[in-house]
Every structure is written in structure tokens, then in C-alpha cells.
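=== RUN LOG ===
request id: a7f3
mode: sequence -> structure
chains: 1
length: 435
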Amino acid sequence: MLKYRSYTATNIHELPQYRNIARDLIHAIKTVATVYPFRVNNYVTEHLIDWTNIPDDPLFRLSFPQAEMLDECDFERMSALVRSDADKALIGQSAREIQLLQNPNPAGQMELNTPRLGEEPLHGLQHKYRESILFFPSEAQVCHAYCTYCFRWPQFSGLENLKFANNDVSLLVAYIREHSEVKDIIFTGGDPMVMSTALLRKYLEPLLDLETVKTIRIGTKSLSWWPYRFTRDRDADDLIRFFEKIVASGKHLALMSHNSHPREIETPEALEAVRRIRSTGAVIRSQSPIVRHVNDSPEIWEDMWQQQLRQGIIPYYMFLERDTGPKRYFEVPLAEAVGIFNHAYRKMSGLGRTVRGPSMSCSPGKIIVEDVTEINGEKVFALKFTQSRNPDWTNRLFFAEFDETASWINDLTPAFNRKEFFFEKEMGELYSCYL
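=== RESULT ===
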């Protein structure tokens, strides 16, 4: 068993590679970490980051905060407080004011996705798409390390009133019994794989007797951030046996692996973790956003997808960076993203063309940017719902005016002089009901 060791802004000086980091960069890390969560561990620092290439190394940028993640005025404000060793309460208050302006829970998660059991809202659950429901175990509201671009940063930032968490699996079971349309349960966080196997059993075993539940998904970054969870942790063998039990029960078990860069799954530790997971009958599917400074080139995506295919991992989604937190630093415009996707996609064999994207997980649903094309002399984005809040929208094509700077659905204008997209009226009615 390898001992897990984490590093944050408070103990970064204990990092063995601390002297490799310039003093101004250390200050930037500490400053940005007052606003966005920062946590890295000894596996990431020892096996993934190229310390001869910082700050430009993509895995360094993925795990260590950068000054540009904050607006210049916000950075200067927090920088002055950090340099003056200001009172923690003042730093926290100033950080909170910035956080609340960063669209902390995008896409109507809090307003539109929280289901009810009778008249009671089920906090810590989200039911956006008819067949699938998300559950946020309370004990999973942390990760082995944090991605700098994480769209769920409020879960780790002390914003308790904006946090999704629940520790009562009986409520999930009761809700599913009343909603037979739910076939797919997604455990997310944070990262459920930070939990012990005993805790995972607490949440997952009650689902095995529910006939309407066909698939169980676990969203995780652990293959990248701590593959020892499946190989060398104290209860790793018990975890593998539990995965076997889930599969033997007749459920499809899928690990939805968050892979941002090919280097994350090249290490012997990651390869062994993949082998052990697949030996249980579980399936690994990969998904990640395309983000500036980390993976914004077709060569990186082709390399990553080809590696996944060789390992038996199924490429699933290329997402676009959500409209929250430090989006402006990491975002890739839609036109550039679809070009990168298409370039990499064309290099894949049929087995690799399971991947979908680039996709916006926005309030109406998951919207794929299919391509840039020309219709009746007008250059447009061709868009399609691959998942939707209203199931009738799924797989429906629609068009937006081409805009080379647009990076999200809110930046787009309907094509062909239409006043609004076909789904906007219904979405407005949903929000008015909430209000």
C-alpha cells in the first residue's frame, strides 16, 4: 500500500518539487487558491507532471492554479490580501464575493434538476434526463486531486448552500420505485472513488435488487489522479470483488473515467488499474472537456483516443468547458473545437467513432456542435441534441449563425432570421414555474 499525500496552498512548501516553482508562481497559486479549490497529490507530482517544463506542462496547468484564472482586478485584490497576510475571515469574505459572480451552479442544476419525493425536494440528487438520475454521496464531496477547470468547484469551496450532497440512499431507492422510467443511476461528486469499498457498498448494494435499474455509472478521475485505488489501496481487492458482484447481479457497471490528457493513462499504475477493472466485467468509458492549455490540439485527442482503444476504454464524450468559474481562461471557441474534434475523429477506426462531441452540457440538454456548414449561402453551425430535458428534442437538428468567437449556447443567434431557438419558449416556461 502506497501512502496517499496531498498538497494544498497551506502545505505546498512541503512538496518535494517546491524549489522547481518560481516564487511569483507560488504566490499566484496561493492567490488563486483562495477562490478556486487546489489540491494535488504525490502520485500526480511524481508520475504525471514534467517538472522541466513548468508552467507550460499541461498536467501542471491541469492541477496547479494559474493567475489568469481570475480577472486581473480580482487577482490583484486577492494578491494584496495574501501578500499582507490579511485576516482569514477577510480573505474568505473577499473570495466569496468573487465566487458568487462566477455562475457557480450553471445549467439550472439547482433550480430545475432537483427532484421531489412527494412534496420534499431531494437535495443531492439531480433528475434532468428522463432515464437517468445523478446521486451525490455526502462522503464523496472531494477528489484525490482537483482539476483547475472543474465545473463543480463550488462542491469544494465551502459554498454549503450551493453544494449537492446526500447520505440517505433509501431516498434514492424510494424515488426510483416511484419512477420506473429511471434505468440509469450515476454516482458522482466530487469523486465516489475516494470512498472506501464499505461506503460504496452502502450506496450501491440497495440498487442491485431494483429490476428497473439496468445500469450503474460511477463518475471518476481516479484512473488519472490515484490509480492505486484499484491496485494497491488497503481495500483494492475488496473493491474489485464488489465490482464483480455488481456485474454478476445483471447490472451493467460503467466507470465514466475523466481523462484529460494521454499522459494520464500511460503509466504502469494506470495500465494495471484498467486491466483490473476490466477483469470484473465492468466497462470504462472516457470523457473530458476540451480546454485551452491542456488538450486543445487534434494530435492530443487522437493520441488519447487511440490509447484508450488499445486499453479497451470506450471513447464517449468530448465536452466544451461549462460557463462557470474560470471558463474564459480555459474555453475553446465552438468553431475551433469542432475543427479539433473532426480532425482527430477522422483518424480513428470505426471502433473509436463511439465518441460524441464537442458537446455543451447546458440547461436544455447536451447539445452537440455537429459541424460548420453553409446553407443557402449562409455560414452556420449545425447543432443537435444528444440528450435533452424534453425527450422529444433528442436527436433534433437546429442551426445557429456562425460566430468564430462563440463558446457557448448563450453566445449563439438562431440562423435564417428566426427570433429564437425552437426550445427557448418551453425553457422559459420551466424557469417561470420555478420562479
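=== NOTES ===
The two ends are 52 Å apart (CA to CA).
The longest helix spans residues 298-311.
=== END ===
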